[in-house]
Design brief:
single chain; about 140 residues; mainly beta; 4-stranded antiparallel beta sheet; 3-stranded antiparallel beta sheet; 11 strands
Length: about 140
């Protein structure tokens, strides 16, 4: 169960029917000029279950509709960011003058289980080198 506190009316999260990602809406009207940086309130605070985190990314239509990019590529919100005033935000960079209206679906999130990992220092990983960087070395 995920507890959610809304700070703005009209931005309620809708039930997921297809896929694993949940849309989030702008909680404010925003006007930005090309080259501007802005933290846009998403108007929600959540208490995620222990051992889980949320990954926040733009929707596939976000750049096409508004010409904005998420400045940190992906937002990671862990379950310790769960106070009443810990309001989720979308950090954007505008590539053109644009306006976002309250209620516009500008990003999405997915809940992920954090792995409990241990690290071991070794001299040899025991695998062949794949070579290159990206596109399998081509």
């Amino acid at each position: 169960m995920i507890k959610i506190k809304y700070h703005t009316e009209g931005i309620e999260i809708e039930k997921i029917t297809i896929g694993d990602w949940v849309d989030l809406r702008s909680a404010e009207d925003v006007s930005v000029n090309r080259g501007d940086y802005k933290l846009v309130s998403l108007g929600v605070s959540m208490k995620l279950p222990d051992g889980y985190e949320a990954h926040v990314v733009p929707r596939s239509s976000t750049f096409k509709n508004w010409g904005i990019l998420q400045t940190n590529s992906m937002g990671v919100i862990d379950n310790s960011y769960s106070g009443n005033g810990d309001i989720w935000k979308f950090p954007l960079y505008a590539t053109k003058d644009t306006e976002i209206k309250k209620g516009d679906r500008i990003c999405q999130f997915r809940i992920m289980k954090k792995a409990n990992m241990k690290f071991e220092t070794v001299e040899d990983l025991g695998e062949n080198n794949r070579g290159g960087f990206g596109s399998t070395g081509k």
